[in-house]
């Protein structure tokens, strides 16, 4: 059996001094935290309804509760869906470029910046970070904030270790206690049932034994997209992050998982037993709007509702610090209390800022709500009026011979009447042109609110505008999108810092002291001009990530527009020859290897060349290396002199060499002077 030491609490109950909220026991702490949860949830009153309505508008669910007649039109406006998908696609295309982050280094760290940049590019692909950002950004359009939890992923590994265990001694005789197998018995921990480590006193009987222990192993960053209704800020009225003293995240665990984690020492076993085994995952005000309905869970699949809280408090009288606690809200039970090393972060993505609040506005619930409702009304109005005009009701004179049930109205039907005016069709006119103009006005209002237009959305507007007008409209629309990108840059920078810090801890925690480098990462580093031989024989050491670095998103609206990027590149190529003639230094810079690689890489990117490794891979690197060595050799004056001598004795050929050589030595006995043909330095 594995040796388990409970690690549920970093603070013992006796260390709680009551200096914060009169917390003197685990029960007091659980009561205070759950009461704060109740206050924060009460402050969210009505927000869940708004968020559900926002998603209903995006999903174009039917919203016409009282139609004017049976089977009347129930058409929801597509404006919210269209603008959301257009903005979301532009933002994702802008952020996830070929290289997501640009890494800058200061001082000596600048030499490692290229490696750190390539390392993070390859690791975020392995982590599938794009999937998480795709969801969190989609939530940010319809919820006050998209919340991404970045934590340090870990797993428990069973390891065999050697320990000095204390042997049990008979209190009467003072002799070691021997079992039925004639082996000495050891002193056991009453909580875990495992042998106790012997003290350093040599008089205490002990023996070396092999035990199996569970040890946490860091595996890299872990991500979780937290729905807004499952995320709470303490206090709820905070206007800035400096005013926030706590965060809370709702999550669910199956009962067998909780029991297993209690055995591994992660949760307190008595607390897990106290919260019961009944299912708590159900519909209602407790949970968020799920895309899939929650089915009934019983027995081994029953799930418990828990809250993980990150809060700032002074619990031991030594000053405020951050803690992490896991509590059960209904039972007021504390399952876990740990010191927080601030590795876990909750990163907010808020594209539409709200003054005086840390959360923001929503695209579907604030910016487009009136336009959406107006377009819905116009759309249903047009459909209803068109249906009436096409299939208008029939006027039937009272006492007429025709029975609509015996002789249904339809093509080729025969209707028996006494006279033609016994039945007639109600005259109704078709949809007036004003309704169509109204529809167009609603669309223009939506364009102005979001800052998009048909050109930027990739739609043919049908207007006969000039090319200059279309470019101006698209350009002004890009300005509005660029503002959203800038608002998302700060959380992206925070995300990079969190990832970098976690990966440094992972490398430092490796038993071998380094991680192997993936082959595709080696190819990527070669393409960026990084010497693969410097990667410690194909392994990444912890010191390679040490230094002062700053990572920021590389993409912008201009870089995501391939047409504009291609035009800028062509203009650069047209200007470069003239600049090189004016300033030879520019020509020397572009003739260097790293600049040539960067130029080729940009060329392949803007022209969508699929096989980049043919130009930037290891074979291409060897060609560039030989050309660089040849260029350096040709720039050596001494080598030029030797080549001139080989061609005839001077830099300009045989005649020039003869003219440029030293005068002949009189007498023929003195050695030639240095610098002559026989004395080249």
List the helices and strands and how they pair.
Elements: E1 2-3, H1 26-42, H2 47-58, H3 79-95, E2 101-105, H4 113-126, H5 129-142, E3 146-166, E4 206-226, E5 231-234, E6 246-254, H6 255-263, H7 269-274, E7 303-313, E8 321-328, E9 333-339, E10 345-349, H8 363-367, H9 369-390, E11 394-396, E12 423-425, H10 433-450, H11 454-457, H12 467-509, E13 515-516, H13 519-527, E14 539-540, E15 549-553, H14 557-560, H15 562-582, H16 584-591, H17 593-606, H18 613-616, H19 618-634, H20 637-647, H21 654-660
Parallel strand pairs: 1-4
Antiparallel strand pairs: 2-15, 3-4, 3-10, 5-6, 6-7, 7-8, 8-9, 11-12, 13-14
Helix pairs in contact: 4-13, 9-10, 15-16
How does this structure look, described?
With about 675 residues, this protein is an alpha+beta fold. About 40% of the residues lie in helices and about 15% in strands. It contains 21 helices and 15 strands. The chain has helices at about 25-40, 45-60, 80-95, 115-125, 130-140, 255-265, 270-275, 365, 370-390, 435-450, 455, 465-510, 520-525, 555-560, 560-580, 585-590, 595-605, 615, 620-635, 635-645, 655-660, and strands at about 1-5, 100-105, 145-165, 205-225, 230-235, 245-255, 305-315, 320-330, 335-340, 345-350, 395, 425, 515, 540, 550-555. Strands 5-6-7-8-9 form a 5-stranded antiparallel sheet. Strands 1-4-3-10 form a 4-stranded mixed sheet. The longest helix has about 45 residues, at about 465-510. The protein is flat and about 125 Å long. The N and C termini lie far apart (about 75 Å).
């Amino acid at each position: 059996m594995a040796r388990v030491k409970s690690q549920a609490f970093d603070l013992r109950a006796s260390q709680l001094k009551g200096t914060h909220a009169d917390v003197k026991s685990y029960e007091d702490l659980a009561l205070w935290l759950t009461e704060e949860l109740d206050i924060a949830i009460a402050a969210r009153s009505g927000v869940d309804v708004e968020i559900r309505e926002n998603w209903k508008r995006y999903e174009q669910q039917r919203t016409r509760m009282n139609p004017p007649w049976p089977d009347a039109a129930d058409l929801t406006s597509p404006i919210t869906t269209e603008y959301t998908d257009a903005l979301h696609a532009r933002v994702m295309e802008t952020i996830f470029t070929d290289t997501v982050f640009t890494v800058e280094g200061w001082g000596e760290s600048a030499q490692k910046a290229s490696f750190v940049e390539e390392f993070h590019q390859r690791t975020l692909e392995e982590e599938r970070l794009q999937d998480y950002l795709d969801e969190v950004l989609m939530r940010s359009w319809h919820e006050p904030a998209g919340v991404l939890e970045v934590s340090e992923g870990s797993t428990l590994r069973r390891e065999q270790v050697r320990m000095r265990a204390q042997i049990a001694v008979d209190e009467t005789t003072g002799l070691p206690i021997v079992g039925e197998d004639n082996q000495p018995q050891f002193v056991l921990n009453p909580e875990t049932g495992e042998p106790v480590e012997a003290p350093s006193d040599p008089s205490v009987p002990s023996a070396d034994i092999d035990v199996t222990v569970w040890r946490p192993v860091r595996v890299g960053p872990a991500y979780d997209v937290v729905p807004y209704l499952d995320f709470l800020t303490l206090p709820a009225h905070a206007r800035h992050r400096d005013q926030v003293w706590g965060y809370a995240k709702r999550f669910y665990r199956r009962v067998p998982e909780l029991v297993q984690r209690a055995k591994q020492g992660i949760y307190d076993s008595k607390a897990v037993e106290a919260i019961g085994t009944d299912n708590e995952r159900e519909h209602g005000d407790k949970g968020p709007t799920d895309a899939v309905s929650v089915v009934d869970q019983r027995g081994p699949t029953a799930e418990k509702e828990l809250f993980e809280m990150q809060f700032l408090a002074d619990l031991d009288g030594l000053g405020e610090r951050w803690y992490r606690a896991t509590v059960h809200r209904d039972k007021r039970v504390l399952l876990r209390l740990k010191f927080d090393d601030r590795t876990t972060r909750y990163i907010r993505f808020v594209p539409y800022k709200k003054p005086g609040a840390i959360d923001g506005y929503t695209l579907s619930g604030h910016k487009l709500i009136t336009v959406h409702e107006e377009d819905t009304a116009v759309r249903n109005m047009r459909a209803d009026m068109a249906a009436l005009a096409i299939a208008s009701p029939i006027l039937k004179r009272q006492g007429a011979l025709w029975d609509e049930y015996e002789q249904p109205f339809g093509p080729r039907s025969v209707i028996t009447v006494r006279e033609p005016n016994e039945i007639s069709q109600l005259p109704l006119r078709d949809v007036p042109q004003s309704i169509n103009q109204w529809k167009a006005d609603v669309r223009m209002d939506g364009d102005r609110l979001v800052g998009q237009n048909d050109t930027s959305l990739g739609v043919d507007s049908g207007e006969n505008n000039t090319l200059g007008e279309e470019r101006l409209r698209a350009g002004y629309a890009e300005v509005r999108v660029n503002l959203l990108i800038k608002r998302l840059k700060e959380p992206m920078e925070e995300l990079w810092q969190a990832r970098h810090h976690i990966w440094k801890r992972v490398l430092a925690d490796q038993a071998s002291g380094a991680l192997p480098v993936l082959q595709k990462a080696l190819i990527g580093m070669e393409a960026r001009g990084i010497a693969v031989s410097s990667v410690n024989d194909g392994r990444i050491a912890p010191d390679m990530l040490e230094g002062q670095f700053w990572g920021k998103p590389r993409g912008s609206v201009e870089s995501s527009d391939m047409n504009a990027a291609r035009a800028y590149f062509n203009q650069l190529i047209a200007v470069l020859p003239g600049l090189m003639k004016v300033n030879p230094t520019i020509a020397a810079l572009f003739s260097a290897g790293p600049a040539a690689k960067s130029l080729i890489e940009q060329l392949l990117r803007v022209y969508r060349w699929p096989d980049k490794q043919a130009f930037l891979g290891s074979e291409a690197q060897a060609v560039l290396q030989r050309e660089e060595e040849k260029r350096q050799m040709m720039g050596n004056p001494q080598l030029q002199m030797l080549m001139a001598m080989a061609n005839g004795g001077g830099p300009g050929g045989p005649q020039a060499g003869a003219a440029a050589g030293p005068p002949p030595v009189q007498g023929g006995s003195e050695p030639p002077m240095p610098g002559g043909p026989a004395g080249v330095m």
